[in-house]
Structure formats: structure tokens, C-alpha cells
Write a structure and sequence with these properties.
With 219 residues, the protein is α+β, with helices and mostly antiparallel strands. 31% of the residues lie in helices and 22% in strands. It is globular.
Length: 219
């Protein structure tokens, strides 16, 4: 037995002090590499989560909130709107102008020739796409007294001012009809058509319908 132990001990490799130090150093270096790799992975993961959390508010705001969805359609009573008066409704987060036009405003709009228009297209979601921007195509169902339009300038999205601009008509001592955008000087006529300035298109006439002679639903 003693002889066997002696043989086994003689076959066990002897490690010098120098070799032992090298082995310890290699192990420490390997551990350091593993630790560094872990830190890279952990940092990357945290960065990805941080980026996702940062982007979330921007993604979330692209989805319409409940209040906007609730206003997908709105109804308006036209009866209280006097001739020459305009009200502004809020629909899908945008202002909508509902104007009871005067006979002079209607007459001025009808007198405009199509070749005088900057945008010859009706921009009315209630008529066939591409229809000409006649006054008849800017209203609905022959009810020419009431003009309904999204009150957002087609240039950069400002809100035009009513009864202003070079294409309003003068009745007595006051201007009536027509819209002017003070942001960059766009002028719209009494049918909401762009006549002068940087805006490229007429004010949009949204989808709407008459529920009765005095009530409409927009949207």
C-alpha cells in the first residue's frame, strides 16, 4: 500500500510557485472579462429599456384619447345662429366654423370665376373628389345660407379670423364674411376659398349631414 501511494504521489505533477502565480493571474483575468461582458450586457439592456420608456410618451400621444374619440361626431343646432353670425365648434380637436351667410356674401362667392381661384378644387368631403370649387360645391344640399368648414389655415395650421381680409364684403360700415390668417397673411373669400397668400388649399369642408332643417351632424 505504501508503495502504491508513493507511485501515485510520484505521478502527481509538481507546480512551481511561478506557475501558480501565472494560473492565478489568468483566472483573475478571465473573471474580469466575464464581469466586463456582463456590465456591457446589463448597460445595453438598461439603455434599451430607457429608450423604450422615453419613446413611450411620443407613441402614446399618437393614439387619440377618449375625449377625441367621443367627439368623432358632433351635432349643432343652426336655429340660434343669426344671419351674418358665425359660431365655432370643437370637433376632433379642431375648430369648425359654422357661418350663416348674408345674401351679399353668397352673391360675392357665386360671382367668382373659376380661373380666379388659387385652388380650383372644392375640398368638400361631401362631394366627389376633384369637383370644382364653385360656391354650390362648398355647401351641402343646396342649403347655401350655411357654410361649414374646418377653421384651420391650410398653410401652417393657424386659425383664421372671420369677417377679415381682402375678400370679405362690406355691408354698411363693417366687413362681413371672408377670413384672414394673421400668421402669414392668407386671405379666404366668403366661400372659404384661398384667394391670396401662402396657403395652398381652400379651407376643408368636413363630412356632415342635415338631421333636420335646423340641425346638422358633423363627422
Amino acid at each position: 500500500m505504501a508503495r502504491l501511494i508513493s507511485i501515485a504521489m510520484s505521478k502527481t505533477p509538481q507546480i512551481s510557485a511561478g506557475e501558480k502565480d501565472v494560473a492565478i493571474a489568468e483566472h483573475a483575468e478571465h473573471a474580469d472579462v466575464n464581469r466586463r461582458d456582463f456590465l456591457y450586457i446589463a448597460t445595453g439592456a438598461v439603455g434599451a429599456v430607457g429608450a423604450a420608456l422615453t419613446a413611450w410618451p411620443f407613441i402614446a400621444q399618437m393614439n387619440p384619447d377618449a375625449s377625441v374619440l367621443a367627439l368623432a361626431t358632433i351635432e349643432a343646432d343652426l336655429a340660434p345662429i343669426a344671419v351674418g353670425q358665425e359660431i365655432t365648434l370643437k370637433w376632433r380637436g379642431n375648430p369648425v366654423f359654422v357661418r350663416h351667410r348674408t345674401p351679399r356674401e353668397i352673391e360675392a362667392a357665386k360671382a367668382v370665376k373659376m380661373d380666379e381661384l388659387k385652388d380650383p378644387v372644392a375640398r368638400n368631403e361631401n362631394v366627389k373628389e376633384g369637383e370644382p370649387a364653385t360656391d354650390e360645391n362648398r355647401v351641402l344640399g343646396g342649403k347655401e345660407n350655411f357654410l361649414v368648414m374646418v377653421g384651420v389655415c391650410t398653410h401652417l395650421g393657424c386659425v383664421p379670423i372671420g369677417n377679415e381680409g381682402e375678400y370679405a364684403v362690406v355691408e354698411g360700415s363693417a366687413k362681413t364674411g371672408g377670413w384672414f390668417c394673421p400668421c402669414h397673411g392668407s386671405h379666404y373669400d366668403t366661400a372659404g376659398r384661398i384667394r391670396k397668400g401662402p396657403a395652398p388649399e381652400n379651407l376643408l369642408v368636413p363630412k356632415y349631414e342635415y338631421l333636420s332643417d335646423t340641425k346638422i351632424r358633423i363627422g
